[in-house]
Amino acid sequence: MRSRYCAFVVGDLRYLIETWHPGTRPSDVEPTPSLRWTGLEILDVGAGREDDTRGTVEFRAHWRDGPTTGVLAERSRFVRQSGRWWYLDGDVS
């Protein structure tokens, strides 16, 4: 999760696509150019250990867009396939 957040911060769309599960990945990922990510809080982690095949991460990602600030709160789901973790999707609250 932290690596995906960092990819959003620096605008590394290639990494985001490469870590998104092909079955749930959108055809296009378009960042908002004026949006700046300003912090990440990991609230909860469920499973995701070496022997697990599924995991969840609940987080808050803080952002700024000009004078406006906000928080994206999500519980993300991940799956381990072919020896690596893939982002599946998330429930935004």
What does it look like?
InterPro entries: NTF2-like_dom_sf (IPR032710), YchJ-like_M (IPR048469). Residues 1-90 form the YchJ-like middle NTF2-like domain. This is YchJ-like middle NTF2-like domain-containing protein. It comes from Microbacterium pumilum. The chain has helices at 2-10, 13-19, and strands at 35-47, 54-65, 68-81, 84-92. It is α+β, with helices and mostly antiparallel strands. The chain has a single domain (2-92), classed as Nuclear Transport Factor 2, Chain: A (Roll). The chain has a four-stranded antiparallel sheet with strand order 1-2-3-4, covered by helices on one side. Strand 3 (68-81) and strand 4 form a beta hairpin. The radius of gyration is 14 Å and the shape is globular. The relative contact order is 0.20. The model has no long low-confidence stretch (mean pLDDT 95).
Whole-angstrom Rg: 14 Å
Strand line-up in the sheet with most strands:
1-2-3-4
Total beta-strand segments? 4
Q: What is the number of domains? A: 1
Taken as a percent bin, the fraction of beta residues is over 45%
Estimate the mean pLDDT confidence: 95
Q: What's the CATH C level?
A: Alpha Beta
- The rounded distance between the terminal residues' Cα atoms is 17 Å
Organism: Microbacterium pumilum
Pfam families: YchJ_M-like
Domain YchJ-like middle NTF2-like: 1-90
Protein name: YchJ-like middle NTF2-like domain-containing protein
Short description:
Helix content is 17%, strand content 52%. With 93 residues, it is α+β, with helices and mostly antiparallel strands.
What key attributes describe this structure?
single chain; 93 residues; alpha+beta; Nuclear Transport Factor 2, Chain: A; four-stranded antiparallel β-sheet; 52% strand
